[in-house]
Amino acid sequence: VRFDIAILGAGFSGAMVVTHLVRETQTPLRIALIDPAFHAPKGAAYSTMRREHLLNVRANQMGAFPDAPEDFWRWLNGRAEANAFVPRMWYGDYLAEIYEKTSVLAAERSIAIERMAWPAQRIHALEGEYLIEDAAGETLCAKQLVLATGNQLPPSDTQGVIRIPWGYDYTNLPTQKDAPIWIIGSGLTAVDTVVSLKRAGYQGNVIMLSRHALLPQAHPALPSPVLAYAPQVLAGQPLSRIMHHWRVWAKAQIAQGASWQATIDALRPYTVALWQSLPLEDRARFFRHLWSRWNAHRHRMAPEIAGELTSMQQQEFLTLRRGSALALDTGAVTWRDMAGAQQRSEASLIFDCRGPRYQVEAMPWLADLLRESIIHAAPVGYGLRLEAPYRVSTAGHPPLYALGPLLLGELLETTAVPELRTEARDVARLLLA
Ligand SMILES: Cc1cc2nc3c(=O)[nH]c(=O)nc-3n(C[C@H](O)[C@H](O)[C@H](O)COP(=O)(O)OP(=O)(O)OC[C@H]3O[C@@H](n4cnc5c(N)ncnc54)[C@H](O)[C@@H]3O)c2cc1C
Prior knowledge:
Number of strands: 14
Helix content: 25-40%
Number of helices: 13
Largest sheet: 7 strands, mixed
Bound molecules: flavin-adenine dinucleotide
Radius of gyration: 22 Å
Distance between the termini: 23 Å
Protein backbone atom coordinates (compact mmCIF):
# COMPACT_ATOMS: atom_id res chain seq x y z
CA VAL A 1 0.00 0.00 0.00
CA ARG A 2 1.49 3.37 -1.03
CA PHE A 3 1.09 6.68 0.80
CA ASP A 4 2.39 10.19 0.17
CA ILE A 5 3.09 10.64 3.86
CA ALA A 6 3.23 8.27 6.82
CA ILE A 7 3.19 9.55 10.39
CA LEU A 8 4.31 7.38 13.27
CA GLY A 9 2.53 8.40 16.45
CA ALA A 10 -0.94 9.90 16.76
CA GLY A 11 -0.57 11.89 19.98
CA PHE A 12 -0.71 15.69 20.00
CA SER A 13 2.24 15.98 17.60
CA GLY A 14 1.16 13.46 14.96
CA ALA A 15 -2.48 14.55 15.05
CA MET A 16 -1.57 18.23 14.72
CA VAL A 17 0.77 17.52 11.77
CA VAL A 18 -2.22 15.85 10.07
CA THR A 19 -4.46 18.81 10.94
CA HIS A 20 -2.07 21.30 9.33
CA LEU A 21 -1.59 19.06 6.29
CA VAL A 22 -5.34 18.82 5.74
CA ARG A 23 -5.80 22.58 6.16
CA GLU A 24 -2.89 23.65 3.99
CA THR A 25 -2.45 21.16 1.17
CA GLN A 26 -3.27 22.35 -2.33
CA THR A 27 -3.26 18.84 -3.80
CA PRO A 28 -4.94 15.56 -2.83
CA LEU A 29 -2.95 13.50 -0.34
CA ARG A 30 -2.91 9.99 1.00
CA ILE A 31 -1.77 9.93 4.63
CA ALA A 32 -1.12 6.93 6.89
CA LEU A 33 -1.37 7.64 10.63
CA ILE A 34 0.15 4.75 12.55
CA ASP A 35 -0.35 4.26 16.29
CA PRO A 36 -1.52 1.26 18.30
CA ALA A 37 -2.72 3.40 21.24
CA PHE A 38 -6.47 3.42 21.86
CA HIS A 39 -6.17 6.95 23.23
CA ALA A 40 -5.02 8.74 20.07
CA PRO A 41 -5.00 11.73 19.62
CA LYS A 42 -4.86 12.37 23.39
CA GLY A 43 -1.59 10.58 24.11
CA ALA A 44 -0.62 9.45 27.61
CA ALA A 45 -0.70 13.06 28.82
CA TYR A 46 -4.35 13.88 28.09
CA SER A 47 -6.08 10.51 28.20
CA THR A 48 -6.13 10.36 32.01
CA MET A 49 -9.68 10.02 33.36
CA ARG A 50 -8.75 11.45 36.76
CA ARG A 51 -9.94 14.96 37.41
CA GLU A 52 -7.10 15.72 39.85
CA HIS A 53 -4.54 15.39 37.04
CA LEU A 54 -4.19 19.01 36.02
CA LEU A 55 -2.44 20.68 33.11
CA ASN A 56 0.86 22.21 34.14
CA VAL A 57 0.38 25.14 31.76
CA ARG A 58 -2.33 27.79 32.18
CA ALA A 59 -5.47 27.31 30.07
CA ASN A 60 -4.87 30.42 27.96
CA GLN A 61 -1.43 29.13 26.87
CA MET A 62 -2.55 25.68 25.73
CA GLY A 63 -4.16 26.44 22.34
CA ALA A 64 -3.21 23.77 19.82
CA PHE A 65 -2.45 26.30 17.06
CA PRO A 66 0.62 28.54 17.09
CA ASP A 67 -1.30 31.65 16.03
CA ALA A 68 -4.02 31.17 18.68
CA PRO A 69 -2.64 30.33 22.15
CA GLU A 70 -6.04 31.19 23.70
CA ASP A 71 -7.95 28.74 21.51
CA PHE A 72 -8.24 26.08 24.22
CA TRP A 73 -9.41 28.57 26.82
CA ARG A 74 -12.07 29.89 24.40
CA TRP A 75 -13.15 26.30 23.70
CA LEU A 76 -13.67 25.87 27.47
CA ASN A 77 -16.43 28.42 27.04
CA GLY A 78 -16.54 29.86 30.54
CA ARG A 79 -15.71 26.64 32.41
CA ALA A 80 -12.50 28.15 33.84
CA GLU A 81 -10.56 31.37 34.26
CA ALA A 82 -7.99 32.12 31.57
CA ASN A 83 -5.16 31.64 34.09
CA ALA A 84 -6.48 28.40 35.57
CA PHE A 85 -4.81 24.99 35.55
CA VAL A 86 -7.65 22.76 34.41
CA PRO A 87 -8.05 18.94 34.28
CA ARG A 88 -5.96 17.35 31.55
CA MET A 89 -8.92 15.24 30.44
CA TRP A 90 -10.63 18.44 29.26
CA TYR A 91 -7.65 19.02 27.03
CA GLY A 92 -8.00 15.47 25.71
CA ASP A 93 -11.59 16.27 24.71
CA TYR A 94 -10.42 19.45 22.99
CA LEU A 95 -7.85 17.50 20.96
CA ALA A 96 -10.40 14.82 20.07
CA GLU A 97 -12.71 17.53 18.75
CA ILE A 98 -9.96 19.14 16.66
CA TYR A 99 -9.10 15.75 15.20
CA GLU A 100 -12.74 15.02 14.40
CA LYS A 101 -13.04 18.32 12.54
CA THR A 102 -9.84 17.45 10.68
CA SER A 103 -11.36 14.15 9.57
CA VAL A 104 -14.49 15.91 8.29
CA LEU A 105 -12.45 18.52 6.41
CA ALA A 106 -10.23 15.79 4.95
CA ALA A 107 -13.28 13.99 3.55
CA GLU A 108 -14.52 17.26 2.01
CA ARG A 109 -11.13 17.90 0.43
CA SER A 110 -10.61 14.34 -0.85
CA ILE A 111 -7.67 13.71 1.45
CA ALA A 112 -7.42 10.12 2.56
CA ILE A 113 -6.28 9.55 6.15
CA GLU A 114 -5.88 5.90 7.04
CA ARG A 115 -5.46 4.98 10.71
CA MET A 116 -3.27 1.93 11.25
CA ALA A 117 -3.69 0.62 14.79
CA TRP A 118 -0.37 -1.19 15.08
CA PRO A 119 3.11 -0.29 16.33
CA ALA A 120 5.78 0.06 13.68
CA GLN A 121 8.32 -2.72 14.26
CA ARG A 122 10.85 -1.98 11.53
CA ILE A 123 11.51 0.78 9.04
CA HIS A 124 13.71 0.50 5.93
CA ALA A 125 14.51 2.87 3.11
CA LEU A 126 14.06 1.35 -0.35
CA GLU A 127 14.13 3.01 -3.75
CA GLY A 128 13.24 6.49 -2.57
CA GLU A 129 10.55 5.41 -0.09
CA TYR A 130 10.20 4.23 3.48
CA LEU A 131 8.84 0.78 4.17
CA ILE A 132 7.12 0.54 7.53
CA GLU A 133 6.51 -2.94 8.84
CA ASP A 134 4.18 -4.25 11.56
CA ALA A 135 4.76 -7.30 13.78
CA ALA A 136 3.15 -9.64 11.25
CA GLY A 137 5.48 -8.41 8.50
CA GLU A 138 2.77 -6.44 6.65
CA THR A 139 4.27 -3.28 5.13
CA LEU A 140 3.20 0.06 3.81
CA CYS A 141 5.33 2.48 1.79
CA ALA A 142 5.52 6.25 2.03
CA LYS A 143 7.48 8.88 0.14
CA GLN A 144 7.89 10.95 3.30
CA LEU A 145 7.86 9.83 6.92
CA VAL A 146 7.34 11.70 10.20
CA LEU A 147 8.43 10.37 13.59
CA ALA A 148 6.06 11.75 16.23
CA THR A 149 6.53 8.94 18.72
CA GLY A 150 6.63 11.26 21.74
CA ASN A 151 7.35 10.14 25.25
CA GLN A 152 8.57 6.53 25.26
CA LEU A 153 6.90 4.99 28.25
CA PRO A 154 8.53 2.05 30.02
CA PRO A 155 7.26 -1.48 29.26
CA SER A 156 3.84 -2.25 30.70
CA ASP A 157 3.13 -3.12 34.32
CA THR A 158 4.37 -6.24 36.07
CA GLN A 159 2.83 -7.64 39.22
CA GLY A 160 3.18 -5.07 42.03
CA VAL A 161 5.15 -2.55 39.90
CA ILE A 162 3.02 0.05 38.14
CA ARG A 163 4.78 1.73 35.25
CA ILE A 164 1.91 3.65 33.67
CA PRO A 165 0.20 5.29 36.64
CA TRP A 166 -2.41 7.40 34.80
CA GLY A 167 -4.61 4.45 33.90
CA TYR A 168 -4.20 2.67 37.25
CA ASP A 169 -7.34 1.62 39.11
CA TYR A 170 -6.89 3.28 42.52
CA THR A 171 -9.80 1.42 44.14
CA ASN A 172 -8.02 -1.60 45.66
CA LEU A 173 -5.16 0.02 47.51
CA PRO A 174 -3.12 -1.57 50.32
CA THR A 175 -4.24 -0.79 53.88
CA GLN A 176 -2.53 1.23 56.61
CA LYS A 177 -1.14 -2.00 58.16
CA ASP A 178 0.68 -2.96 54.96
CA ALA A 179 4.17 -1.75 54.03
CA PRO A 180 4.38 1.79 52.54
CA ILE A 181 3.73 2.51 48.89
CA TRP A 182 6.92 3.53 47.08
CA ILE A 183 7.04 5.96 44.19
CA ILE A 184 10.27 5.96 42.22
CA GLY A 185 10.97 9.41 40.78
CA SER A 186 9.78 12.81 41.99
CA GLY A 187 8.74 14.60 38.80
CA LEU A 188 5.30 15.51 37.52
CA THR A 189 4.23 11.87 37.00
CA ALA A 190 5.17 11.08 40.61
CA VAL A 191 3.13 14.10 41.69
CA ASP A 192 0.09 12.85 39.70
CA THR A 193 0.44 9.50 41.47
CA VAL A 194 0.69 10.71 45.06
CA VAL A 195 -2.23 13.11 44.55
CA SER A 196 -4.36 10.26 43.18
CA LEU A 197 -3.39 8.02 46.13
CA LYS A 198 -4.52 10.71 48.56
CA ARG A 199 -7.76 11.39 46.68
CA ALA A 200 -8.49 7.66 46.55
CA GLY A 201 -8.41 7.57 50.34
CA TYR A 202 -5.14 5.68 50.87
CA GLN A 203 -4.39 5.78 54.61
CA GLY A 204 -0.82 4.46 54.72
CA ASN A 205 2.51 6.16 53.98
CA VAL A 206 4.06 7.03 50.66
CA ILE A 207 7.81 7.13 50.12
CA MET A 208 9.11 8.97 47.09
CA LEU A 209 12.64 8.00 46.09
CA SER A 210 14.74 9.98 43.65
CA ARG A 211 18.36 10.91 43.14
CA HIS A 212 17.88 14.57 44.01
CA ALA A 213 14.61 14.35 45.97
CA LEU A 214 13.50 17.47 44.12
CA LEU A 215 9.78 18.02 43.64
CA PRO A 216 8.68 20.23 40.76
CA GLN A 217 8.42 23.85 41.81
CA ALA A 218 5.06 25.63 41.76
CA HIS A 219 3.68 28.22 39.37
CA PRO A 220 2.73 31.45 41.13
CA ALA A 221 -1.01 31.79 41.77
CA LEU A 222 -1.23 34.58 39.21
CA PRO A 223 0.87 34.80 36.06
CA SER A 224 4.00 36.91 36.48
CA PRO A 225 4.51 39.88 34.16
CA VAL A 226 6.71 38.91 31.21
CA LEU A 227 10.27 40.14 31.67
CA ALA A 228 12.38 41.42 28.80
CA TYR A 229 15.69 39.59 28.61
CA ALA A 230 17.94 39.55 25.59
CA PRO A 231 20.45 36.75 26.07
CA GLN A 232 20.91 36.17 22.32
CA VAL A 233 24.22 38.09 22.55
CA LEU A 234 25.42 35.05 24.52
CA ALA A 235 24.97 32.64 21.61
CA GLY A 236 28.18 30.68 21.15
CA GLN A 237 29.38 31.35 24.70
CA PRO A 238 30.13 28.51 27.10
CA LEU A 239 27.37 27.29 29.43
CA SER A 240 29.12 28.70 32.52
CA ARG A 241 29.14 32.20 30.98
CA ILE A 242 25.46 31.98 30.00
CA MET A 243 24.50 30.75 33.47
CA HIS A 244 26.50 33.52 35.12
CA HIS A 245 24.90 36.21 32.91
CA TRP A 246 21.42 34.88 33.61
CA ARG A 247 22.02 34.58 37.38
CA VAL A 248 23.22 38.18 37.69
CA TRP A 249 20.27 39.41 35.61
CA ALA A 250 17.74 37.24 37.48
CA LYS A 251 19.00 38.41 40.90
CA ALA A 252 18.58 42.04 39.86
CA GLN A 253 15.04 41.35 38.57
CA ILE A 254 14.07 39.52 41.76
CA ALA A 255 15.50 42.37 43.86
CA GLN A 256 13.11 44.66 41.97
CA GLY A 257 10.12 42.47 42.80
CA ALA A 258 9.98 40.00 39.89
CA SER A 259 9.18 36.35 40.61
CA TRP A 260 11.93 33.77 40.10
CA GLN A 261 9.53 31.91 37.79
CA ALA A 262 9.42 34.94 35.47
CA THR A 263 13.22 34.98 35.24
CA ILE A 264 13.17 31.36 33.97
CA ASP A 265 10.26 31.99 31.61
CA ALA A 266 12.15 34.94 30.09
CA LEU A 267 14.72 32.42 28.79
CA ARG A 268 12.14 30.32 26.94
CA PRO A 269 12.08 32.20 23.60
CA TYR A 270 15.89 31.87 23.41
CA THR A 271 16.45 28.42 24.89
CA VAL A 272 16.63 26.54 21.58
CA ALA A 273 19.01 29.02 19.92
CA LEU A 274 21.30 29.16 22.96
CA TRP A 275 21.22 25.39 23.31
CA GLN A 276 22.13 24.84 19.67
CA SER A 277 25.05 27.25 19.98
CA LEU A 278 26.52 25.40 22.98
CA PRO A 279 29.63 23.27 22.53
CA LEU A 280 28.69 19.57 22.71
CA GLU A 281 30.61 19.01 25.93
CA ASP A 282 28.52 21.75 27.58
CA ARG A 283 25.27 20.10 26.41
CA ALA A 284 26.49 16.83 27.95
CA ARG A 285 27.48 18.66 31.14
CA PHE A 286 24.01 20.22 31.31
CA PHE A 287 22.30 16.82 31.05
CA ARG A 288 24.67 15.40 33.70
CA HIS A 289 24.51 18.15 36.28
CA LEU A 290 21.68 20.60 35.65
CA TRP A 291 18.84 18.75 33.95
CA SER A 292 17.06 17.60 37.12
CA ARG A 293 17.16 21.10 38.56
CA TRP A 294 16.14 22.63 35.22
CA ASN A 295 13.15 20.26 34.97
CA ALA A 296 12.04 20.98 38.54
CA HIS A 297 12.08 24.73 37.92
CA ARG A 298 11.03 24.82 34.29
CA HIS A 299 8.20 22.22 34.29
CA ARG A 300 6.24 23.46 37.27
CA MET A 301 3.06 22.24 38.89
CA ALA A 302 -0.20 24.07 39.51
CA PRO A 303 -0.11 26.04 42.79
CA GLU A 304 -3.09 24.15 44.24
CA ILE A 305 -1.29 20.83 43.70
CA ALA A 306 1.88 22.24 45.27
CA GLY A 307 -0.20 23.22 48.34
CA GLU A 308 -1.56 19.68 48.61
CA LEU A 309 1.95 18.23 48.46
CA THR A 310 3.20 20.53 51.22
CA SER A 311 0.42 19.43 53.55
CA MET A 312 0.99 15.76 52.64
CA GLN A 313 4.62 16.19 53.74
CA GLN A 314 3.62 18.01 56.92
CA GLN A 315 1.18 15.20 57.79
CA GLU A 316 3.94 12.68 57.03
CA PHE A 317 1.69 11.02 54.46
CA LEU A 318 4.52 11.66 51.99
CA THR A 319 8.25 11.33 52.69
CA LEU A 320 10.95 12.16 50.16
CA ARG A 321 14.14 10.10 50.17
CA ARG A 322 17.36 10.65 48.26
CA GLY A 323 18.79 7.59 46.57
CA SER A 324 18.91 5.52 43.39
CA ALA A 325 16.62 2.59 42.74
CA LEU A 326 18.58 -0.54 41.82
CA ALA A 327 15.79 -3.10 41.45
CA LEU A 328 12.02 -3.10 41.74
CA ASP A 329 10.53 -6.48 42.64
CA THR A 330 7.10 -7.49 43.76
CA GLY A 331 7.03 -6.34 47.38
CA ALA A 332 10.44 -4.70 47.67
CA VAL A 333 12.62 -1.86 46.42
CA THR A 334 16.38 -2.31 46.39
CA TRP A 335 18.11 1.05 46.39
CA ARG A 336 21.38 2.83 47.15
CA ASP A 337 21.32 5.63 49.71
CA MET A 338 23.43 8.79 49.59
CA ALA A 339 26.17 7.19 51.71
CA GLY A 340 26.47 4.48 49.04
CA ALA A 341 24.92 1.72 51.15
CA GLN A 342 22.56 -0.75 49.52
CA GLN A 343 19.12 -0.95 51.12
CA ARG A 344 16.15 -3.23 50.64
CA SER A 345 12.78 -1.86 51.73
CA GLU A 346 9.40 -3.51 51.80
CA ALA A 347 6.76 -1.96 49.59
CA SER A 348 3.11 -2.93 49.33
CA LEU A 349 2.97 -1.36 45.87
CA ILE A 350 5.56 0.34 43.66
CA PHE A 351 4.93 3.07 41.09
CA ASP A 352 7.83 3.49 38.69
CA CYS A 353 7.59 7.19 37.75
CA ARG A 354 11.11 7.68 36.41
CA GLY A 355 9.62 9.18 33.28
CA PRO A 356 10.05 8.59 29.58
CA ARG A 357 13.21 7.27 27.97
CA TYR A 358 14.92 9.34 25.31
CA GLN A 359 17.68 6.94 24.24
CA VAL A 360 17.19 5.71 20.67
CA GLU A 361 18.41 2.28 21.81
CA ALA A 362 15.05 2.02 23.61
CA MET A 363 13.29 2.35 20.23
CA PRO A 364 13.88 -0.89 18.33
CA TRP A 365 11.88 0.24 15.29
CA LEU A 366 14.67 2.74 14.54
CA ALA A 367 17.43 0.08 14.61
CA ASP A 368 17.60 -0.56 10.83
CA LEU A 369 17.66 3.15 9.99
CA LEU A 370 20.43 3.70 12.55
CA ARG A 371 22.46 0.75 11.31
CA GLU A 372 22.23 1.95 7.72
CA SER A 373 23.27 5.48 8.81
CA ILE A 374 20.05 6.94 7.44
CA ILE A 375 19.56 8.54 10.85
CA HIS A 376 21.96 9.09 13.76
CA ALA A 377 21.57 9.42 17.51
CA ALA A 378 21.92 13.01 18.75
CA PRO A 379 25.59 13.72 19.58
CA VAL A 380 24.90 13.92 23.33
CA GLY A 381 22.16 11.27 23.26
CA TYR A 382 18.51 12.02 24.07
CA GLY A 383 16.91 11.39 20.70
CA LEU A 384 18.00 11.90 17.11
CA ARG A 385 20.53 14.13 15.33
CA LEU A 386 19.13 16.89 13.16
CA GLU A 387 20.50 17.23 9.62
CA ALA A 388 18.34 20.28 8.79
CA PRO A 389 15.32 21.82 10.56
CA TYR A 390 13.22 18.84 11.76
CA ARG A 391 14.89 16.61 9.17
CA VAL A 392 16.69 13.59 10.63
CA SER A 393 17.49 11.60 7.44
CA THR A 394 20.95 12.09 6.01
CA ALA A 395 21.59 13.43 2.49
CA GLY A 396 20.55 11.17 -0.36
CA HIS A 397 17.69 9.55 1.56
CA PRO A 398 13.98 10.36 1.33
CA PRO A 399 12.64 13.01 3.71
CA LEU A 400 12.29 11.78 7.26
CA TYR A 401 11.23 14.35 9.86
CA ALA A 402 10.93 14.21 13.63
CA LEU A 403 9.30 16.43 16.22
CA GLY A 404 8.66 16.48 19.92
CA PRO A 405 10.62 14.63 22.60
CA LEU A 406 12.66 12.74 19.94
CA LEU A 407 14.55 16.02 19.40
CA LEU A 408 15.35 16.65 23.07
CA GLY A 409 19.13 16.40 22.64
CA GLU A 410 19.05 18.87 19.72
CA LEU A 411 16.46 21.41 20.93
CA LEU A 412 16.09 20.91 24.71
CA GLU A 413 12.79 22.80 24.75
CA THR A 414 10.59 20.40 22.75
CA THR A 415 8.18 18.58 25.02
CA ALA A 416 5.27 20.92 25.83
CA VAL A 417 2.37 22.17 23.73
CA PRO A 418 3.67 25.76 23.35
CA GLU A 419 6.64 24.34 21.39
CA LEU A 420 4.96 21.31 19.79
CA ARG A 421 2.19 23.34 18.16
CA THR A 422 4.78 25.35 16.21
CA GLU A 423 6.79 22.23 15.38
CA ALA A 424 3.66 20.47 14.02
CA ARG A 425 2.84 23.37 11.72
CA ASP A 426 6.44 23.71 10.54
CA VAL A 427 6.80 19.98 9.83
CA ALA A 428 3.52 19.99 7.86
CA ARG A 429 4.83 22.89 5.75
CA LEU A 430 8.09 21.05 5.05
CA LEU A 431 6.10 18.00 3.95
CA LEU A 432 4.06 20.12 1.55
CA ALA A 433 6.99 22.20 0.27
C1 LIG B 1 1.61 12.95 32.15
C2 LIG B 1 2.00 14.08 31.27
C3 LIG B 1 1.44 15.35 31.47
C4 LIG B 1 1.76 16.40 30.63
N1 LIG B 1 1.18 17.61 30.84
C5 LIG B 1 1.43 18.63 29.99
C6 LIG B 1 0.78 19.90 30.13
O1 LIG B 1 0.00 20.12 31.05
N2 LIG B 1 1.06 20.88 29.23
C7 LIG B 1 1.96 20.67 28.21
O2 LIG B 1 2.18 21.58 27.41
N3 LIG B 1 2.61 19.49 28.08
C8 LIG B 1 2.36 18.48 28.92
N4 LIG B 1 3.00 17.28 28.76
C9 LIG B 1 4.00 17.15 27.70
C10 LIG B 1 3.53 16.26 26.55
O3 LIG B 1 4.72 15.61 26.17
C11 LIG B 1 3.01 17.00 25.35
O4 LIG B 1 2.07 17.99 25.71
C12 LIG B 1 2.34 16.09 24.30
O5 LIG B 1 1.31 15.32 24.87
C13 LIG B 1 3.32 15.19 23.58
O6 LIG B 1 2.64 14.68 22.46
P1 LIG B 1 3.38 13.75 21.40
O7 LIG B 1 2.40 13.48 20.34
O8 LIG B 1 4.67 14.37 21.00
O9 LIG B 1 3.73 12.43 22.21
P2 LIG B 1 2.76 11.32 22.82
O10 LIG B 1 1.52 11.90 23.35
O11 LIG B 1 3.64 10.54 23.72
O12 LIG B 1 2.32 10.44 21.56
C14 LIG B 1 3.21 9.61 20.87
C15 LIG B 1 2.43 8.47 20.26
O13 LIG B 1 3.33 7.67 19.48
C16 LIG B 1 2.93 6.33 19.56
N5 LIG B 1 4.07 5.48 19.21
C17 LIG B 1 5.22 5.30 19.90
N6 LIG B 1 6.00 4.41 19.28
C18 LIG B 1 5.33 4.00 18.18
C19 LIG B 1 5.61 3.06 17.13
N7 LIG B 1 6.75 2.36 17.11
N8 LIG B 1 4.69 2.89 16.16
C20 LIG B 1 3.52 3.58 16.17
N9 LIG B 1 3.21 4.46 17.13
C21 LIG B 1 4.10 4.67 18.12
C22 LIG B 1 2.46 6.17 20.99
O14 LIG B 1 1.55 5.07 21.10
C23 LIG B 1 1.81 7.52 21.28
O15 LIG B 1 0.40 7.48 21.14
C24 LIG B 1 2.71 16.21 29.60
C25 LIG B 1 3.30 14.95 29.42
C26 LIG B 1 2.94 13.90 30.23
C27 LIG B 1 3.57 12.55 30.00
